Amino acid sequence: EVCILEYTGTYSSILSYLLEQNGVRQSIITPGQSKSFAGVIKNITKNDTRDAVHLLLFGERNTPNFYKFSSDNILKIRQIRVAIRQYNKVLRVVQNQLHAFEQLPYQDATVLEMYKQHIKQLKENIDKLSAQINTIADDNFKALDAKIQTVKGVGVKTSHAIITATNGFEGFDT
Question: For residue 39, what are the contacts with CB-CB under 8 A and spacing of at least 6?
Fold first, then answer.
């Protein structure tokens, strides 16, 4: 049995994960592939039932590659990297708010302290999450991480990004 899915980001992730955990092979196609295929078979109707039929036909007429779900450690690193990016965005916003607040002719001491505490907490969270990525990478990808970092200009953050983007280089033909 094979399940053909259209990638929908986080919405398809849980289904894909559960299929993987239950040993169901799956192929994941992009929305663009799905739309192009619908055009080829000259379908103009768009609804969930028709989309399901298209995915079935796509699987029957093509031989899409089977999807290999990422390891739990890769998934953890990805989630943490997303959280760090989000924290950094919030940090920039709060730093800008503090800067604007400091330009006022009068600054309430409580508000000023809250801005500073918020910035401190965000930085602590970012540091804690970064350390967690380093621990996961050291425990699970130490040799690969070291090899990637031998490339000039590639540091820890870039190495971790490469490891997560390539699923630890799994699935590559050698």
Answer: none
Angle at 22 between CA 53 and CA 2, to 5 degrees: 30
- Residue identified by tokens 């970012």 is 126
Q: Is 8 helix (H, G, I), strand (E, B) or coil?
A: coil
**How far is it, in rounded angstroms, from Cα 69 to Cα 58?**
21
Give the other-Cβ count within 10 Å of 127's Cβ: 11
Residue range 20-61, pLDDT digits in tens: 888 888 888 877 777 777 777 776 667 677 777 777 777 777
3-class DSSP state of 42: coil
How far is CA 42 from its chain centroid?
34
Q: Render pLDDT for 71-96 as a digit per residue (tens, 0 to 9).
A: 889 989 999 999 999 999 999 999 99
User: Is 16:5 a contact under the CB 8 Å cutoff?
Assistant: yes
Query: How far is it, in rounded angstroms, from Cα 87 to Cα 93?
Result: 10
